[in-house]
Every structure is written in structure tokens, then in C-alpha cells.
Amino acid sequence: MKVDQQLLKNEVNQRRTFAIISHPDAGKTTITEQMLKLGGAIRQAGTVKGRKTGKFATSDWMEVEKQRGISVTSSVMHFNYEDKHVNILDTPGHEDFSEDTYRTLMAVDSGVMVVDTANGIEAQTEKLFKVCRMRGIPIFTFMNKLDRDGREPIDLVEELEEVLEIDAYPMNWPIGTGRSLIGVYDIYHNRIEFNDPDEWNNGETYLPLNEQGEIEGEHRLKEDRLYEQVLEEVELLKIAGNEFSKEAIAAGELTPVFFGSALTGFGVESFLKTFLGFAPEPSTTIDQEELAVEPTDENFSGFIFKIQANMDPKHRDRIAFVRICSGQFEPGMSVTLSRTDRDFRLNNSTQFMAEDREIVKHAVAGDIIGLYDTGNFQIGDTIYEGKDQVTFKELPQFTPEIFMKVEPKNVMKQKSYHKGIQQLVQEGAIQLYKTYHTEEYILGAVGQLQFEVFEHRMNKEYNSEVVMKPLGNKIARWINPDQLDENMSSNRSLLAKDRYDQPVILFESDFALRWFSDKYPEVELYSLL
Ligand code: G4P
């Protein structure tokens, strides 16, 4: 395809593609809505998703399924802000948490971590953070719910650094919280941002500070004890805190921390502006041959990081989500699927928006498009344009945490049962393990939803009813086959093998894992991500 190189470059440089990571209820939806509002993509809050799919009980899966049409449209949201084209990828939590949530993080260039100031760093944030860390992408922190009394800011920053093992740089510092919230001292811009500008600053949101970082001349705030306090705290941060470093942010070693309130919108705009200033544009992707694929390369390439099935039960359609790594997409273009070497045309593609799906006419590196799929794609597949084959590296596998034994309900229907399992495993919907000797099937997942999707799809797409027996939470550790002794298996540690026949031990608890390591100190155990 003929590509205007300069135009492509300009467009790619405008792209900012990121995910918001957080623990459920920290405020991800609320801040997403505020950003969409600032970008003019929605008019009012409350439109992002059939809110809180997570509130459905697991048995309401069919209800959730019905909602899919809504929630899937929020899988990727885009809007323009100033000169940037912003793509936000949703990372489902609650019962929607699955390996897809992790894999989505493979398709972004940066992450925004939303933390509830009342709760600090929570379990799911930590898990998602680790994946971002492994990728070395920049992470920006939004300490949310400043309109409520939360924990001490310094505690929160210290906890963040300690638990996540990352340096933090407070970009601003709260002046009061909850009812007494006056605003923030914006360290980075050397100004004060008021929560209620009418009350405090003649309607002006920002008050610039002098070179010493203090208010010049007379101001009501100077008489407030919180002002003295914040000056002292900021002074301390400047002396004892980390240095600001653009390079450390870019390398994912330093997270800039912003305090604000997604609900009231306080601090969200200055966060978005500053964040977009630092957030990276689409970066180079390294392929399997260790060759660099540049976003501005003329030829299109991309990889599939998520497949959403059964969005419309009448059509059994699936949508493969593609992160474009280079070049540009135009409807009808010809591409090759690297795994099968098959050529085909990209006709039916779609982009997503909060309120509806739209047909994409044009997209460039950094963007996400959805391709209607009739079963051709697998997660991790590369598609590319041109003669030179491109195959991106495999997406990482994630250590499952929940396990189920599975059997066909009707033993006469083994064929469809095996076919279904094989395909769903290949597609990345679920992980397959077998007990070491008896080869009974065990399914592994990171979220309960994966089992429900599995059961539902086996039934609907492969006409195979399954019986699932929960094994509960397990800690899976891989073991070097040379060190394996089958007597190591006990009622607290089940010996299994993965789908590549590699031995894995499923430990019942942390305690069982420690007991094992004490008993066999020479045995090395590995986990996936
Ligand atoms: P999530 O997507 O991360 O799960 O969180 P979501 O934005 O849905 O927010 C979870 C709850 O926290 C919501 O209240 C929301 O209104 C509230 N919230 C979000 N940001 C702030 C904030 O800055 N300050 C305060 N005080 N609350 C905030 P809810 O009552 O559970 O839901 P809803 O009934 O209001 O939707």
C-alpha cells in the first residue's frame, strides 16, 4: 500500500495507548469517564459500561453474556485530547478477571495505576503492576478519592515504593483531605491547584508560586495551618525524596504520583495533561528474529492479544483484537497470517467506543482494531503486510491460580470434547494440565470467568457438555524434570504436567510450598509470570 511517510509519522507520534490498572472499586471507571469527558467523547458520566458487570453473581453468566455487547465496546476507548490521539484499553477486574486482562497489558505503551487512598496498594493492582514492570513500560500513579479522608499521603507513597519495589516521585501533594481538602501543591508545575477556586482563589484554578515555591504577596491560604504544613512536607520531599527523572520514568523505574479525585474531577485534567506529556508514543516491537519493527515502517503489522467470543449469540461471531505495531490499516487490505502463511483481506474490522462500535476506515501503529473472526486467529498471532515475514514473540503465559477437574458429561461424545478443549486451549481461553499418571484433565485459570466462558463455549460451540469439579486455589510451580521424583507428590501437592508435558506441582497453600522447599532444598521451582 502506498503510504505517505510523513503523514504516517505524524499520526503515529500522536498516539498514546495505555491501560488503567487498579483493584476493583479504586475508581478506574470513574477516571476513565472523566477522561472521556475531557476528550469530548462522552457527555456524561455513567455511560462507559453496563456498569459493574462484576456485581453479577457467577450464576448470572448468561446475563453477563447479554451485557457483553455493551461491555465489549468499552474494551478499547479512544478520544482526542489537545494534539494527542488517546487509546485506553480496559483491564477487566472482579469476576471478569482473566488471562485476557494480563494480555491486554502486552498491547499498551504505558499504564496508569489508580489507587484508593483509603486502601493503598491492593492485590489486583499488585498483580497487574508486575506485568507492566516485566514489560518495562512507564507507569503513572493516580492516588484517588482525595475528597474523602484516606491514609496519610506519605504512608501511601512509602507503601507503594516498598510493595511494588519502584521509586515514586510525588508530582503534587495534598493540602488537606476529605472535607478539609483545599487543593494540591503542584510540585512539578510549582503552583497550587484549588479544589474550590471560587472559594479560595477568585475563581482561578491555579495559583503560581515564586522561585522559593511559596505564595508571593498576600493570600488567604497563607493564614491556614495546612499551608505551613504542606510547605514543610514538600520541603522534606525535596530533600529526602527521589529526584525527578524523565529517563527513569520512561524506563518504568520511577512512577510519578498524582493525588486527586476521579469522582469530583479534581486534579484529573492536570493529571491527563501532564501524563500525556510523558506517556510514550508507540514504540519499536522486536520480533522473533530479534529484528526491530518500527511503528513508522511502511508495511502494516500487528499481533492479536485478545479474542472475544460469542458477542452476538445469533452469529457466533468472535472478535480478534489487534494491536497495530507498524504501518497503517485500510479496509480491504491484504495481509498474511504468519502462523499459517495464509493471505487474506481485512474487510470486516471495527473500532470500539464507549457507546457503540464503529467501522474503522483508518488506523495506524499504536491503535487497536477488532477483526471479525470465524475461527482463523489465535491469541499471539501476527498478521503482516508485504513480502518480508514478520512473526512477533509469543505472548507470555501466566501462572494460573484456580483449577478445576473436567470431564465430558457424555462419554460417547469424546471427539467434540477433545476438539473443543484443544481449540480453546490453543486460543488462550484456558490452560490445560493433566494429572501426572492418570492423565485426567485439569483446567487452570487466573480468574473464575475463564471457567464459565469455557463451559459455556464447550456447550454452545462444540456441543459438548462438561462436568467441572473445583480443585480450588493452588500455587503452581514448575520443576526441572531431572529433579523430579514422583514420591514428591502428596495430598498437599498434586503432581501434574502442562500441555507441553512439563512437570508442575500444584501446591495447596503457601505453607505446602514452604514445607516442600524445606524438605527438598536442592529442587528448583519456577513460576510463569
Ligand atoms: P472501578 O471501575 O475501579 O471498579 O471503580 P469505579 O470507578 O466504579 O468506582 C468505585 C466506587 O468508588 C464508585 O462508588 C465510585 O463512585 C467511587 N469513586 C470513584 N472515584 C471516587 C473518588 O474520587 N471519590 C469518592 N469519594 N468516590 C469515588 P459506588 O457507590 O460503589 O458506585 P456507584 O453506585 O457510584 O456507581
Instruction: Give unreliable regions as ranges.
Output: 49-73
Which percent range describes the beta-strand content? 25-35%
Q: Biggest sheet: strands side by side, in what order?
A: 18-17-23-14-15-22-19-20
Globally, the shape reads: globular
Specify the CATH class of the largest domain.
Alpha Beta
Give the N-terminus to C-terminus distance in angstroms.
Answer: 38 Å
* Oligomerization status of the protein chains: single chain
Under CATH, the topology of the largest domain can be stated as Rossmann fold
Radius of gyration: 25 Å
Residue-averaged pLDDT, rounded? Answer: 88
Which structural category do the helix and sheet elements fall into? alpha+beta
Helix coverage percent of residues?
25-40%
Small ligands present:
guanosine-5',3'-tetraphosphate
Commentary on this structure:
- There is one protein chain.
- This protein has 529 residues and is an alpha+beta fold.
- Helix content is 26%, strand content 29%.
- Strand 17 (333-337) and strand 18 form a beta hairpin.
- Helix 11 packs across helix 12 (448-462).
- It is globular, with a radius of gyration of 25 Å.
- 43% of the residues are buried.
- The model is unreliable at 49-73 (pLDDT under 50).
- The chain binds guanosine-5',3'-tetraphosphate.
- Guanosine-5',3'-tetraphosphate is lined by residues 22, 24-30, 51, 144-145, 147-148, 261-263.
- It holds the Pfam family RF3_C.
- Belongs to the TRAFAC class translation factor GTPase superfamily. Classic translation factor GTPase family. PrfC subfamily.
- GTP binds at residues 22-29, 90-94, 144-147.
